[in-house]
């Protein structure tokens, strides 16, 4: 008797824990129920993946979706629409919204918007600050919370922890992996005057130099090691930090962004002006080579986009009043697949960075691998397709990408979330957003982790 699935993906090459396999995948109730040659199965929906690669759903563990409060830059609806169009099946969203995400009410307000509007799966960070430091052990375990994020240097918004005593209180109050933006606030303040009058964005990596990043990274790592607290250093941008971080495993994990792997100073500032301005800055080729080395030797654990939209009008303000940040959630996979095509990393390594990596570091239940019983989230990509990234493709409210005009080989084709084809042949299919909160092993209500 034939077995009935909700969805069968046939004819593709799947990246599984065994390598790359020519297998079919059957999904029931949002889970993977069979893998292999599946002649005895039929399905309500069959997806032909001939010539395509099926990756475990890619998770972007660093995005700023600006809602509530800054919806002229981005919204959860538009940000997650961009995510699925770019092949991303889940996101972790950052707390520097307005209001900041500092307590249970703030978190629930975002979750309520996402329950209505999110096209992909989601989790939200709580911001760590003097205001909530002593409550973080409880807050970080709320369902759907990705953990705590700390800004050691001011970037965008009012979230800042530049006081060592507060940082120590934060490190002591909680046990989950703490995510940090590591730039040293006092050095940033000292050095801003050096570039203030120039109006020249090429000075950005000079103002926020590699020492600013290294000083903060070394300080927070030292403190975390003392407290035996797991740490996640976001958007590592310099050779010096990578050299230091190589000695800090396994307690400390490392993120890099596609921007730091792809754009290079001074060229990017000459071509893009303040559009290329982000924190920590895109640096020169020496640093970029060190980041690639860290991708290839395994030091880097995840790739996050740091999707941080601002409107083009805001970006056009004279430097350094121009805000830092670029869109990225929609271009993460196209840009990284292009690097795969160019031979800079393998497809297996890319899925380690975008799927298995986030699942392993943050304790995501049911995510990160194509395996029996895991969630049926897939990024199905065409490694041969050559396309041009263009602003008009970008779903973000801000409507632009630093990669406008870039030709890439490797493109997301279908995005499957919970066994539903949300994007088919590059276009949204379902009438309604159907993203769900992601579940964490270290969350306080884990009763829903049972099969
Ligand atoms: O460039 C950045 N922009 N870096 C950050 O860490 C924050 C972000 C934003 O929220 O705009």
CATH overall fold name of the largest domain: TIM Barrel
Q: What coarse outline follows from CA principal-axis ratios?
A: globular
What would you say the CATH architecture of the largest domain is? Alpha-Beta Barrel
Structural class: alpha/beta
Ligands in the structure? (4S)-2,6-dioxohexahydropyrimidine-4-carboxylic acid
Count structural domains.
2
Strand order of the largest sheet: 8-9-10-11-12-13-14-15
Largest sheet properties: 8 strands, parallel
Unreliable parts: none
Distance between the termini: 25 Å
The Rg value, from CA coordinates, equals 21 Å
Q: What integer is the average pLDDT? A: 97
Number of strands: 19
**Number of helices, where a helix is a run of at least 4 consecutive DSSP H or I residues:** 14
So, the CATH homologous superfamily of the largest domain? Metal-dependent hydrolases
In words, what does this structure look like?
- The chain has 451 residues and is an alpha/beta fold.
- It has two domains: 3-54 and 373-385 and 406-430, Urease, subunit C, domain 1 (Roll); 58-362, TIM Barrel.
- Helices cover 29% and strands 24% of the residues.
- The chain has helices spanning 76-85, 104-117, 136-139, 164-172, 185-196, 204-207, 210-227, 239-245, 258-262, 267-272, 285-296, 312-315, 332-341, 347-362; strands at 3-10, 13-16, 19-22, 24-28, 31-36, 41-48, 53-56, 58-63, 88-93, 121-127, 145-151, 178-181, 231-233, 252-256, 302-303, 378-388, 407-417, 420-424, 427-428.
- A hairpin with a 2-residue loop joins strand 4 and strand 5.
- It is globular, with a radius of gyration of 21 Å.
- The structure holds (4S)-2,6-dioxohexahydropyrimidine-4-carboxylic acid.
- Residues 64, 96, 155-156, 181, 278-279, 306, 308, 324-325 line the site of (4S)-2,6-dioxohexahydropyrimidine-4-carboxylic acid.
């Amino acid at each position: 008797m034939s077995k009935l699935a909700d969805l069968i993906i046939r004819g593709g090459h799947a990246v599984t824990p065994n390598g790359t396999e020519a297998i079919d995948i059957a999904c029931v109730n949002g889970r993977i129920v069979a893998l292999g040659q599946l002649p005895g199965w039929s399905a309500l929906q069959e997806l032909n993946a001939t010539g395509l690669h099926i990756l475990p759903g890619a998770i972007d563990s660093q995005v700023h979706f600006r809602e509530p409060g800054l919806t002229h830059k981005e919204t959860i609806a538009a940000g997650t629409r961009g995510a699925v169009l770019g092949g991303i099946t889940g996101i972790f969203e950052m707390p520097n919204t307005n209001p900041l995400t500092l307590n249970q009410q703030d978190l629930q307000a975002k979750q309520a918007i996402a329950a209505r509007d999110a096209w992909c799966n989601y989790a939200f960070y709580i911001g760590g600050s003097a205001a909530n430091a002593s409550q973080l052990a409880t807050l970080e375990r709320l369902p759907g919370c990705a953990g705590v994020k700390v800004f050691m240097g001011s970037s965008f918004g009012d979230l800042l922890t530049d006081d060592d005593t507060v940082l120590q209180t934060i490190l002591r109050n909680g046990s989950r992996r703490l995510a940090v933006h590591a730039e040293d606030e006092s050095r940033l303040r000292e050095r801003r005057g050096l570039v203030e009058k120039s109006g020249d964005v090429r000075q950005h990596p000079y103002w926020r130099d590699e020492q600013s990043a290294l000083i903060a990274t070394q300080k927070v790592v030292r403190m975390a090691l003392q407290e035996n607290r797991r740490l996640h250093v976001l958007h590592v941008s310099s050779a010096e930090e990578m050299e230091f971080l190589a000695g800090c495993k396994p307690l400390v994990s490392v993120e890099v962004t596609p921007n730091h792997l792809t754009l290079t100073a001074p060229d990017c500032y000459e071509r893009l002006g303040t559009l290329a301005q982000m924190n920590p800055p895109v640096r020169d080729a020496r640093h970029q080579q060190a980041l690639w080395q860290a991708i290839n030797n395994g030091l880097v654990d995840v790739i996050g986009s740091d999707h941080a939209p601002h409107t083009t009008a805001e970006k056009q303000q004279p430097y350094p009043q121009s805000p830092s940040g670029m869109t990225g959630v929609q271009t993460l996979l196209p840009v990284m697949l292009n690097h795969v095509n160019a031979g800079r990393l393998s497809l297996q390594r890319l899925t380690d960075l975008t799927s298995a990596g986030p699942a392993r570091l943050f304790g995501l239940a049911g995510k990160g691998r194509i395996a029996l019983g895991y969630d049926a989230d897939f990024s199905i990509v065409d490694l041969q397709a050559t396309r041009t990234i263009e602003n008009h493709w970008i779903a973000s409210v801000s409507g632009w990408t630093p990669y406008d005009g870039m030709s890439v080989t490797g493109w997301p084709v279908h995005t499957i979330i919970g066994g539903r084809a949300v994007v088919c042949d590059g276009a949204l299919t379902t009438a309604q957003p159907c993203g769900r909160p992601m579940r964490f092993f270290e969350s306080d209500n884990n009763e829903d982790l049972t099969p």
